[in-house]
Amino acid sequence: MTDLINEERITQRVDHRSTADLVKLASEQISHLVRDELRLAQLELTRKGKQAGIGAGMLGGAGVMALYGGGALVATVVLLLAMVLPAWLSALIVAVLLFAMAGVLAMIGRSRVKRATPPVPERTVSSLKEDIGTVTEAVKERGYR
Which residue spans traverse the membrane (predicted)? Predict the structure, then answer.
């Protein structure tokens, strides 16, 4: 019951305003709404950009690890061909560990990059559509009174 009374009071206050006042109020509200939506989009894109940067860094780290693994593997082949003690076995173990680390970094980096794409501010777009729907409904309701 209280909600109905409050809604009626608000309706009465709005109904007694001039068209110029209502247009001024609407433009102020739209301006505020657009600024808030732009701020939300900026925050969302910043967060996604950070995610993509971290993922790209991890992919770069994976590349470096793979390069070191390749170097260790080459050293293993050289030591194996030279047949100098079982030193080749230790070099092979190091190469396998480096490749394993590269694989883990690559998988983590790839998932981070996937999570950051597409760089569309999805929540902002959804919120903006909802705002447009609300304004459209309010205009329709106002026209039928």
Answer: 56-81, 87-108
CA separation for the pair 30, 114 (Å, rounded): 35
Question: For 115-137, what is the mean pLDDT?
Answer: 77
Contact 68, 98 (CB under 8 A): yes
Q: How many CB atoms lie within 10 A of CB 110?
A: 14
- Number of helices and strands (H, E) in the chain? 4, 0
Q: Packing angle between helix 19-82 and helix 122-143, nearest 10 degrees?
A: 160
Q: What is the dihedral of CA 131, 137, 139, 142, to 10 degrees?
A: -140
Q: Each residue of 76-103: pLDDT tens digit?
A: 776 776 675 677 677 777 778 878 989 9
Q: Which amino acid is at 120?
A: V
Structure tokens at 109: 């980096």
Beta carbons within 10 angstroms of residue 120's beta carbon: 12
The span from the CA of 133 to the CA of 140, in Å, is 10
